[in-house]
Fold:
Amino acid sequence: MGAMTTVFRRELAGYFATPVAWVFIVIFLLTTAAFAFYLGNFFERGQADLLSFFTYLPWLYLFLIPAIGMRLWSEERKTGTIELLLTLPISVPAAVIGKFLAAWAFVGIALALTFPFWLMVSYLGDPDHGVILASYVGALLMAGGYLAITSCLSSLTQNQVIAFVVSTGVCFLFTVSGTPIVLDFVSGWAPDLLVDQIAGFSFITHFQSIIGGVIDLRDLVFFASLIGVWLFVNMIIIEHKKFAG
Amino acid sequence: MAAMLEVRDLVKRFGPFTAVDGISFEVQRGEVLGFLGPNGAGKSTTMKMITGFLGPSAGTVTVNQLDALANPIMAKTRIGYLPEGAPAYPDMTPAGFLDFIASVRGLSGRERKQRIAEITERVEIGRVMQQPIETLSKGFKRRVGLAQALLHDPEILILDEPTDGLDPNQKFQVRTLIQELAPEKAIIISTHILEEVSAVCSRALIIAHGKVVADGTPGELMGRSRFHNAVVLELKGDNQPDFETLRADLIRVPGVASVEPDGDRRVVVFPEGTATVTDGVSQLAGARGWQIGAFYVDPGRMDEVFRSITQGN
Structure:
C-alpha cells in the first residue's frame, strides 16, 4: 500500500514537472468548449443541462486519453527506469495500479476544471444536478476505461507513438462497438448472442444511458470491470516480459 | 558462515539464444566479487536475474538464506542495485528522485533526511541536487545511481559497471567508496576495466558465453598468465647489444626457457616451470656491463589472461 502511494505521488507530480499537464488541460478545456458550443449547440438547444458537453466527450477522450496514457509504461522501458522500478521492493500490481491511479487522478483534475459549464447552466436555468453529478461520475469512469486500455497496451512497447496509435485503435473499437460501424461488420455472420455481446461493450451506449439520467448499476459495473480486466492483463504482460526477456 | 548471496545453476534463454548457461557462485560478507568478461558474455543478464528484473529459465538465487525467486519483495529490500547505464527519471531532480527511492525503501522522517544527506555527501552530488537529472553529466548521473543503490544501506550491493563514464578522479573515488563499504557488505561489480579487478575485487569471475570460465583472486588469475614469474629486463644507454645477441646470452642462463622482445628496449625472460632466474640474469647483466633501466619480476598480465581465457575456448 505504501509503495503504491509512493508510485502514485511520483507519477502524478511527474505530469506537472513538465509542460505536459498544462498543455493537456488547456487543450482539453478548449476542445470540450468548442464541441459543446459548436457541435453540441449548447445555447441553441435552450435546455438547462450539460448533454451537449457530455455527448462529445467519448470522441475527445479517444485521442486525449491515449495521449496521456501512452507514456505510462513505454517511457519506463525506453529510459530503462523500468529496471529500477521493478528491482525496488514494489509488487507489480502496486506499480501498475499506482501509475494508473495517478494518470486517472490527472484526468479527473482536468475533468473537474470543466466546472464552469455546470455553473453556467445553473445560472442560466434550473438543471437536474443529480443527473449532472452522475454524468461526471460516468465521465470519470469512462476515462478510467480508456486509460486502462492505454496503460495495458503501453506496457507492450517502448515506442510511445506505437502505444498511442494502437491504444487509439482499440479505444475506437470499444467506443463504436454498439454502432453500425462494428455491428454491420459482424451481424452478417455472427450469432445474435455474440452481436449483442459486442454491442454491450460499447462505451457510448453505456455512457449515454448514464448521461441520459438513468443510473443503472450495470453501467457502473461495466466500466469498473473493464478497468479491472485491462489492468490485470497489464500486470500479466509485465510479469511475462520478465521471463520472455 | 553461510553465504550472503548464493547463485546456483542460473540459466537464461532468450528464444533459441542462451545468454546465461548455468552460472553458480557464492558471495560472503566482506567480499567484492568482480564480474569480468567481454560484452555480451552474460554479466548484466546474471545481475538482472539476481535483482529480480528478469526471471531465470532455470536455477536458484538465495539471498541471505531466503529463496529470492519465491520472496522477491523481501529479497529486493536487502539488495541495492545500480543497473547498467544508471537509469533515473530524467524529469526529476536528484533530490526528488532520492526522496522517491527513500519512500519506496520505507525510510521516513529524520532517518530519511539523514540518510539522503549522508549519501549525497558520500557520492558528492550536493551541488546538483536541484537540477533535473536529464541535464546532468554522465559522471553525475552515475553517482546519482550509486546514491540510489546505497540509500537503504543494503547488505548486498550489485553494481553494473559503476565506473563507466567517469573520469580518472571519479573512478578513484568510486573505487575508494566500494572498498570502504566492503567489510560490511557482499558486493558484486561488473567491469571490463581489468585494472579495476586488481584494485577493488577480492575475487573475480571471468564469464564468457554465459559460463564461468575462471574463478579466483586477482592474484590467482594473474598466476595463470604466462608472464607470471618472468623476468623483465630493460636496458638503457646508447651502445646496447641487439636483441639476438641478448637472447643468445640469456638463453644460456640456467632455468631460462625462452626470451622474447617486449617493446623497443625490453626483453622478457621466461623461466622453465617455477624456476627462479633473477639471480642468473642479474649476474649475467653485471658480467656483461649492461646498463639496466628496469629489472623486475612480472606478476602476470591481466589483459593476457583475459584474452587467453575468453578467446581460447
